[in-house]
Design goal:
Number of strands: 0
Strand content: under 5%
Amino acid sequence: MSRSADHPPVRHGQESVGELVERASEQISRLIRQELRLAQAEMRQKGKRFGRGGGLFGGAGAVGLLCLQALIAAAVAALALALPVWASALIVAGVLLAVAAVLAAGGKKQLSQGAPPVPERAIDSVKADAAEIKERMSHR
């Protein structure tokens, strides 16, 4: 039975403490590298989603702004039928200010409740690996 250079033959009960420590060190190093690759892949995936979402929100915001400008002009024109134009514009501006305040408060609340962009699966996996290593070390 031949083994690769990464996995030397195991001689059960015949390995010295130095060999065991060396093998454990290699396995832990390999595990850490794998966990880092997982974290990088997870962060790349989250970054792409944030980028796409931000771009779509930006486009929606630009079109929404144009629509809002047309609606504001229509509201001022409609109020100007009953009030002076300056009073109509002032009323519409006050309503818009109130809407902006409500939206800002809602946005602040959502941002504070949002989860931080961290590689959660990788962190959980590292914790599980550490617990497994501790458990196995305590049984020796």
